[in-house]
Specification:
The structure is a single chain. By secondary structure, the protein is α+β, with helices and mostly antiparallel strands. Among the domains are: 171 residues, Jelly Rolls, CATH 2.60.120.260; 100 residues, Immunoglobulins (Immunoglobulin-like, Sandwich). Helices cover 21% and strands 33% of the residues. The strands form 8 sheets. An 8-stranded parallel barrel has the order 26-27-28-29-30-31-32-33, surrounded by 6 helices. The chain has a 6-stranded antiparallel sheet with strand order 3-2-5-11-8-9, with no helix packed on it. Strands 1-15-6-10 form a 4-stranded antiparallel sheet, with no helix packed on it. Helix 8 runs parallel beside helix 9 and helix 9 packs parallel to helix 10. It is globular, with a radius of gyration of 25 Å. The protein binds (2S,3S,4S,5R)-3,4,5-trihydroxy-6-oxo-oxane-2-carboxylic acid.
């Protein structure tokens, strides 16, 4: 990539089409951001259907003049289904939020170099039985009850279905012959690091490739040439998780230099990739990073904040990393969808370990286990693994959250999905997050690590914290007894409305949340000496949900408020996580 041009870092004009013949109001709409909370209009907050973004940009004339330059339009993510036009010509169509897509637009902008480049993006947030996440629509047509009639998007997940263009829209260029992709697998033997690489080139059948690996100070530590090979690094500095080593998140820089010729012109491209050298392995009782036992003491998150919804927001990202480190957390799960690449890069640099989850959340309806759903799920895994495969921070893939894994089709569905994911990436374990009964879960036989969610004394036996020790112990013993695989408590927690107090503790108070956590912790402490390899609190921060009788302006299970201020539980967790970090 030689240069980029931000075309989404400002206002895009947004129009809501109300009918085939006319447009709705035209609004100023920031990108990146969800559109839902930007205006005072509840219709827009809860809107389901097509919205249109449009913006004209002036493309540098050297890009347009030079036929040897490939001009690419890249959308970081748009929720959910998108169609993109440039100067009225369709250039891309993409299904699915949370992942990027792009289009080569050189041909279109060269057609008439005198006109500015008009980018139009139509986005539809409707979820169907085959989308990920799935959803259905119910029409309220009984005119005796609903004078105007209305329809609702039913969702089977617990976060607000924010929509719009959530991540940056960029234009960038490469030469016509270019480095399209790199895949690295890392390993080490004694003090020698090994980086096995593969480079894919597009635009020519052959090219000269020079590969250099540099350390943090810019010194070259290994070189190679050709589209695949192994770089050997003497006295390797391994990539370690935060708090597991004095120098966590160590990254080398791999640079691929391409030169090629098509007989008339020569092309040069450079692609730089940060590389962390580390290994990941799973035994029946342990999760090993660089052959050392790793205990996940971390959080589940959401991409969610006031006003911008799921829109990428740098101050929020940096604040969240500061809070994660303050807490002494060493890991998080990208519940319940892939997070922005910018966040993954931060994880690499800071040594924050990631369980990378695809948007397979809310697969509850038997019709969402059909062939069309599975085919889409497989292709989402292609996109996710393709995007995140080189991040050292990513140590495991999660293909779903709380599916109806007891249903008969779940067996074929999960065996196919997990096999496919392992074929895409043989170097990482694969899991999905379950809340099913251990005896009837049909996907669990295929995972490498059992990840189980439970809310004892909350959704079951509300108000009865005394049930936690026995129920939690039984949960662990049942799962381990059946599968002999390591277990992560992938969610647990309780809602707390900040500032609400009671003693003795009552549900929704800060005291109740604190006590639930502490009761879980004493069981974790007993079982982590055996086969429990991690605990991820639900949730890092309060987040927005659909309106409903169990949600008081959103889910309040955060240990931080939505504005990132600590509740009492944050201090309990902080004390615990630092103690766990110092004990290992
Ligand atoms: C869960 C879900 C999560 C919810 C949470 C809750 O099991 O995985 O998305 O937000 O419970 O608070 O109900």
């Amino acid at each position: 990539m030689v240069s980029t041009w931000h075309c989404g870092g400002g206002i895009m004009i947004w129009a809501l089409f109300q009918s085939d013949s006319g447009t709705g109001p035209v609004l100023e709409m920031p990108v990146p951001a969800s559109y839902n909370d930007i205006t005072q209009d509840s219709m827009l907050r809860d809107f389901i259907g097509w919205v249109w973004y449009e913006r004209e940009v002036q493309v540098p004339s050297r890009w347009v003049k030079d036929e040897g330059t490939r001009v690419v339009l890249r959308v970081g993510s748009a929720h959910y289904y998108s169609v993109v036009w440039v100067n009225g010509i369709q250039v891309a169509e993409h299904e699915g939020g949370h992942l990027p897509f792009e289009a080569d637009i050189g041909g279109v902008i060269r057609e008439d170099p005198t006109v500015p480049c008009r980018i139009t993006i139509a986005v539809n947030n409707t979820l169907t039985l085959t989308s990920l996440p799935p959803g259905t629509i119910t029409h309220m047509n009984d005119r005796t009850k609903y004078p105007g009639g209305y329809f609702v998007q039913n969702i089977f997940f617990d976060f607000f279905n924010y929509a719009g263009i959530h991540r940056p829209v960029l234009l960038y260029t490469t030469p016509k012959v270019y480095v399209d992709d790199i895949t690295v697998f890392t390993d080490f033997a004694d003090s020698t690091g090994l980086v096995k690489y593969k480079v894919s080139v597009k635009g020519a059948s052959s090219a000269n490739l020079k590969v250099t690996l540099m350390d943090k100070d810019g010194h070259c530590v290994a070189t190679s040439s050709g589209p695949s090979g192994v770089l050997k690094v003497a006295d390797v500095m391994l990539w370690w998780p935060y708090l597991m080593h004095d120098n966590p998140g160590y990254l080398y820089s791999m640079e691929v230099q391409l030169s090629a010729s098509d007989g008339q012109s020569t092309f040069e491209d450079v692609y730089a990739l940060p590389v962390g050298i580390r290994t990941v392995n799973v035994t029946s009782t342990q999760f090993l990073i660089n052959n050392k036992p790793f205990y996940f003491h971390g959080v589940n998150k959401h991409e969610d904040s006031d006003i911008r919804g799921k829109g990428l927001d740098w101050p929020l990202i940096v604040k969240d990393f500061n809070l994660i480190k303050w807490l002494g957390a060493n890991s998080f799960r990208t519940s319940h969808y892939p997070y922005a690449e910018e966040i993954m890069q931060m994880c690499d640099r800071h040594g924050i370990v990631v369980i990378d989850e695809c948007p397979g959340v809310g697969i509850k309806d038997i019709r969402s286990f059909g062939n069309a759903s599975l085919a889409h799920h497989l292709s989402v895994m292609d996109e996710l693994v393709g995007r995140d495969k080189n991040h050292p921070s990513v140590v495991m893939w999660s293909v779903a959250n709380e599916p109806a894994a007891e249903m008969p089709p779940a067996d074929y569905y999960f065996s196919t999905l997990i096999k496919h994911t392992k074929m895409l990436d043989p170097s990482r374990p694969v899991t999905f997050i379950t809340d099913s009964n251990y005896a009837r879960d049909k996907g669990a036989p295929y995972v490498d690590v059992i990840c189980v969610n439970s809310y004892f004394s909350w959704y079951h036996d509300p108000g009865h914290m005394e049930v936690i020790p026995i129920q939690l112990k039984t949960q662990f013993e049942n799962w381990f007894g059946k599968y002999k695989k390591p277990i992560i408590q992938s969610e647990y927690g309780a809602d707390a409305v900040p500032g609400l107090h009671s003693d003795p503790p009552m549900m929704f108070t800060e005291e109740y949340q604190k006590n639930v956590l502490q009761s879980y912790h004493s069981v974790f402490d007993e079982k982590r000496k055996q086969y429990v390899i991690g605990e991820l609190i639900w949730n890092f921060a309060d987040f927005m949900t659909a309106q409903g009788i169990t949600r008081v302006v959103g889910n309040k299970k955060g240990i931080f408020t939505r504005q990132r201020q600590p509740k009492s539980a944050a201090f309990i967790l902080r004390e615990r996580y630092w103690r766990l970090a110092n004990a290992t």
